[in-house]
């Protein structure tokens, strides 16, 4: 039954989901579940919470598909839902500590030369460790820009912030990553 | 034109991920031609991009997550069905209410005597003025829920004396004695309702 849906675009699938078509919903889930889970998991750093949020995101996709008007990409819409649900969960967990506009101050200068920095960036485990150490807000934009390859206007829509905020946030994230890479790479020497 | 150096630095990550377009892209490329440090920064961002792209998603919920979703949607669906009873269910409810009303009426008739449109009443004050009990025939829309009919009867102080008949209408009587003007106004009010297809004086 779902074979007929495989070739449909995301927009067409969402139209069918809006008509409460469960087969279309199954196909949509199978197409996007992994990347959404990855995004949520990176933001929350907790696989169990990420599983719950993923469930909530797809329930909302099912309930609100009829309201999707096609003014943005389907991916912008569902990543927006995932982003907001993740933010809500983080706020519930740490209401006093979490700030969406949080940017970590960079107190040290990186000590690696530009070439050493490029070489150190080749270490996958180091990058993963440093991305985890970013603030949740920075991690989200890094993930959307470098994993999902999204443009800054798309990211701005997802996180519901001005485009300038996205550019500033990723700039700070990039600097924070440099500092982290430099620190841990130096520790290994 | 994006000639502010800081703006260009902020745009570089989006050049690295291939999403920069138009004049911004041209401006970044121009600076890349002129600035060694900027080119090195791009190399760092490209290395970062490559590493993050190679991240693998481990243990996403997959089929288990889909099964959980389907169970939740089934439950939601069942709840909706319970909230919105099927039409035949409504018909049975109306029939049941009508049967109860008919039973009550038949007992009343046995106790107080027959009630017809020609029955005459004497007011409690002892006045000799005689008023006649009016009966209306009302055709409700098929989709009208029993609850809505009950509300309407309560609002307009009407009682079912018979129905639904084979022809599909109810015979309703005002609980209070109404003048001709009041009765006409009642018929106009009833006929204007979406739930009512037709309202007539018998």
**pLDDT < 50 stretches of chain B:** 115-132
Estimate the mean pLDDT confidence of chain B: 78
Tell me the helix content of chain A: 55-70%
Strand order of the largest sheet of chain B: 4-5-3-6
Specify which chain pair forms the largest interface: A-B, 46 and 38 residues
Oligomer: heterodimer
Please give the alpha-carbon distance between the first and last residues of chain B.
Answer: 83 Å
- Please tell me what the overall shape of chain A is: elongated
Major sheet summary line of chain B: 4 strands, antiparallel
What is the beta-strand fraction of chain A?
A: under 5%
Q: Spans of chain A with pLDDT under 50 lasting ≥5 residues?
A: none
Order of helices and strands of chain A: HHHHHHHHH
Structural class of chain B, please? Answer: alpha+beta
For the largest beta-sheet of chain A, the strand count, sense and barrel status come to:
none
Helical residues, percent of chain B: 55-70%
Provide the succession of SSEs of chain B. HHHHHEEEHEEHE
Question: What does this 3D model show about the protein?
Answer:
The complex is a heterodimer of chains A (189) and B (202). Chain A has helices at residues 10-18, 22-44, 47-64, 74-93, 114-120, 124-132, 136-147, 152-159, 163-188. Chain A is an all-alpha fold. In chain A, helix 2 (22-44) packs across helix 4, helix 2 packs across helix 7 and helix 3 (47-64) packs across helix 4 (74-93). The longest helix of chain A has 26 residues, at 163-188. Chain A starts with 9 loop residues before the first helix and ends with a helix. Chain B is of the alpha+beta class. Chain B has helices at 5-16, 22-34, 36-53, 62-83, 87-112, 146-155, 180-191, and strands spanning 120-122, 130-132, 136-140, 158-162, 169-174, 196-201. In chain B, helix 1 (5-16) packs parallel to helix 3. The longest helix of chain B has 26 residues, at 87-112. The radius of gyration of chain B is 38 Å and the shape is elongated. Classes of the chains: A mainly alpha (189), B alpha+beta (202). The A-B interface holds A 22, 25-26, 29-30, 33-35, 37-38, 41, 47, 51, 54-55, 58-59, 62, 114-115, 117-118, 121-124, 127-128, 131, 142-143, 145-147, 149-152, 154, 167-168, 170-171, 174, 177-178 and B 7, 9-11, 13-14, 16-21, 37, 40-41, 43-45, 47-49, 51-55, 57, 59-62, 65-66, 68-70, 72-73.
């Amino acid at each position: 039954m779902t074979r007929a849906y495989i070739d449909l675009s995301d927009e067409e699938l969402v139209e069918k989901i809006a008509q409460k078509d469960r087969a279309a919903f199954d196909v949509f889930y199978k197409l996007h579940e992994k990347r959404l889970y990855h995004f949520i998991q990176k933001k929350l750093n907790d696989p169990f919470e990420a599983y719950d949020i993923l469930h909530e995101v797809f329930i909302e996709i099912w309930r609100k598909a009829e309201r999707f008007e096609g003014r943005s990409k389907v991916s912008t819409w569902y990543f927006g839902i995932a982003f907001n649900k993740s933010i809500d969960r983080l706020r519930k967990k740490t209401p006093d500590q979490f700030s969406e506009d949080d940017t970590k101050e960079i107190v040290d200068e990186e000590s690696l030369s530009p070439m050493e920095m490029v070489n150190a960036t080749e270490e996958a485990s180091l990058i993963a460790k440093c991305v985890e150490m970013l603030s949740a807000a920075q991690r989200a934009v890094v993930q959307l820009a470098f994993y999902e390859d999204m443009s800054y206007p798309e990211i701005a829509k997802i996180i519901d912030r001005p485009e300038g905020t996205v550019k500033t946030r990723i700039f700070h994230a990039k600097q924070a990553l440099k500092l982290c890479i430099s620190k841990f790479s130096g520790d290994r020497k | 034109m994006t000639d502010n150096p800081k703006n260009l630095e902020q745009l570089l990550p989006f050049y690295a991920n291939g999403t920069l377009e138009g004049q911004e892209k041209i401006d970044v490329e121009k600076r890349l031609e002129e600035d060694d440090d900027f080119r090195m920064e791009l190399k760092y961002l490209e290395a970062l991009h490559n590493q993050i792209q190679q991240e693998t998603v481990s243990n996403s919920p997959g089929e288990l997550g889909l099964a959980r979703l389907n169970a939740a949607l089934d439950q939601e669906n069942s709840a909706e069905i319970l909230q919105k009873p099927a039409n035949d269910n409504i018909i049975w409810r109306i029939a049941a209410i009508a049967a109860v009303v008919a039973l009550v009426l038949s007992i009343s008739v046995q106790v107080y005597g027959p009630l017809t449109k020609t029955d005459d009443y004497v007011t409690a004050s002892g006045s000799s003025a005689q008023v006649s009990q009016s009966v209306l025939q009302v055709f409700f829309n098929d989709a009208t829920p029993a609850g809505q009919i009950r509300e309407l009867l309560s609002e307009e102080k009407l009682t079912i004396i018979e129905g639904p008949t084979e022809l599909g209408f109810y015979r309703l009587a005002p609980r209070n004695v109404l003048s001709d003007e009041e009765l006409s106004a009642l018929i106009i009010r009833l006929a204007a309702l979406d739930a009512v297809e037709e309202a007539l004086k018998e």
